[in-house]
Amino acid sequence: MRTKPKPAARSGTRRVLKTLDRVLSKAGVGSRTEARSWIGTGRVRVNGRLIQTPDHWVDIERDKVTLDGKPVLSQERVYLLLYKPKGYITTYKDPEGRPTVYDLLSGLNEYVFPVGRLDQDTSGLLLVTNDAQFAERLTNPAYKVAKTYLVKSATRLSDEQLDQLRRGVTLKDGPTRPAEVRRVRDSGAHTFFEISITEGRNRQVRRMVEAIESKVLKLVRVAIASIEIGGLGIGKYRALTQAEVEQLSGKGTK
Ligand code: URA
Hints:
The chain is an alpha+beta fold. The protein has 6 helices and 17 strands.
C-alpha cells in the first residue's frame, strides 16, 4: 500500500507529522505491526473519528489519538531519566521474555517511550518521554546532540587508535563524524575512555571500536548533551527538572 503524500506545513507553522501506526509505536504502546492490526480492527480514533488506515497522517502536536478510548498523545508531558541496567531491552514487549525498561517504569499513568535505543548489553542514561518532538530533537543526527559513553576496551589502545576515533572511522554504513575522545585510564590490558558522538547509528560505538581492531567489553552512556547520569542508582529513574528539559530542547543555556 502506498502512503499518501505528506501534507505540506502551512507557512509559519511548525508541524510534526507522522503516520498513525508510527505514532502508536513511538508512543510505546506496541510494535508497528501490532499498531496496524489495532487500527485495522477499529480500536483507534483520531480527534474522535474512527481511522482504519495506518498511513493516515497525524499532527503529533494537535491531533488527539486514542486507543480503546485512552489518549495516546497525552497533553501531560513526562520527561524521565532512567539508569538502564545491562540486560534490559528498550522495546515495549519482547517475544523472548527478556526484561524491558518498562519493567522498571511501573506506576506511570502515561504512555512513554525511550528516546533512542541502547543495546541490551549497554547500561546508563536513557531518557523516557511521551513528547515526540523532544525525542526527535535528541535522536535526529541533524541536531548534533552529543551522547557520551564510557568504554572499556578489550585491548590497551594507543594514542593513534584514539586519534582514529576522533577523526572518524569508516563503517559499512559510511564514515562516522569526528568524535570527542578522552583517555580516562589504562588498566592492565584494557583502556577506559570516554567518547562523545553526535550520531546514533545502530551499535555505533561498538562498531567504531571494532574498526580500530579492538572490542568493547563494557559500555555505559554517562551523558546526553550536558545532562549526566550522576549518582542515580542502577535501575532507578527520576524526573528531569524544567531547566534540564529546556536545555535538552535547545532552549536553555548549555
Ligand atoms: N553505541 C553502541 O554500540 N551501543 C549502544 O547501545 C549505544 C551506542
